[in-house]
Write a structure and sequence with these properties.
alpha+beta, Rossmann fold, 2 domains, four-stranded antiparallel β-sheet, two-stranded parallel sheet
Length: 231
């Protein structure tokens, strides 16, 4: 952090770190109008958020901001702004629960970053408890099957169409995602890559259990509404 701190100890944003579109998404969905700094004014060095004439210490950050900062520093290494597209020494990128503590808009921004990683040639493995992550995987599968225009991909993330982002979107539509569900009771893994809500296998229809509650809620409300009409 110190070597990349820039002027006034700024860690984020930095003009030569990450693509402009990614910096914009991170600023809008995770840090807002604040910048991440390494504060060296006191006896100890602290990582703080600074903006609006105030300084916010680490313990007052949101859970999502605290979870994201280590990943941000990793992205600085994995997504160089100049030189090679990716690190030759790194083939796989593994992110555990990328949704941790994040607002749904920030989760979508994180998914766009995942697309950037794949475009650069990394293989990405995600673990998740978020239905929204699987919503995005399901959407990309269907967009690919319907030969959708890449601009539709960018509209999902509210990202401007530029020659670079269009290349990323085209590459994303060409990728194939595999989704697996681990059943803790049988200790077996199920391939639910189709994410078909009408599948006969409960594990796939319920997206590994992530949509079962919302499904039961919908059924309960529908049954109650039908009973009311009958009366």
């Amino acid at each position: 952090m110190e070597s990349g701190g820039g002027r006034h100890g700024a860690i984020y944003p930095q003009a030569r770190k990450l693509r402009t579109e990614i910096r914009d998404l991170i600023s809008k969905t995770i840090f807002g109008d604040f910048q991440l700094e390494l504060d060296q004014t006191g006896p100890q060095k602290r990582v703080v958020l600074r903006g609006h004439d105030t300084q916010i210490p680490y313990m007052v950050w949101s859970a999502g901001q605290r979870e994201f900062v280590p990943l941000l520093l990793g992205l600085y290494c994995l997504l160089p702004s100049a030189g090679p597209m990716h690190l030759d020494s790194v083939k796989w990128v593994m992110i555990e629960e990328l949704e941790a503590g994040l607002h749904p808009k920030a989760i979508a921004a994180m998914f766009f970053i995942v697309l950037e990683l794949m475009w650069r040639g990394y293989k990405v493995c995600l673990s998740t408890h978020s239905t929204q992550v699987l919503d995005l995987v399901w959407a990309f599968r269907n967009l690919r099957d319907h030969h959708a225009d890449p601009e539709r991909v960018l509209s999902i993330f509210d990202v401007k169409c530029t020659p670079c982002t269009m290349k990323l979107a085209r590459a994303a539509l060409a990728k194939v995602a595999k989704v697996y569900y681990f059943d803790p009771q049988s200790r077996t893994t199920h391939d639910i890559s189709l994410l078909d809500p009408a599948a006969s296998e409960i594990a796939e229809a319920g997206w590994g259990g992530l949509t079962e509650l919302s499904g039961r809620l919908a059924d309960t409300v529908a049954d109650a509404a039908a009973a009311t009409r009958v009366i």
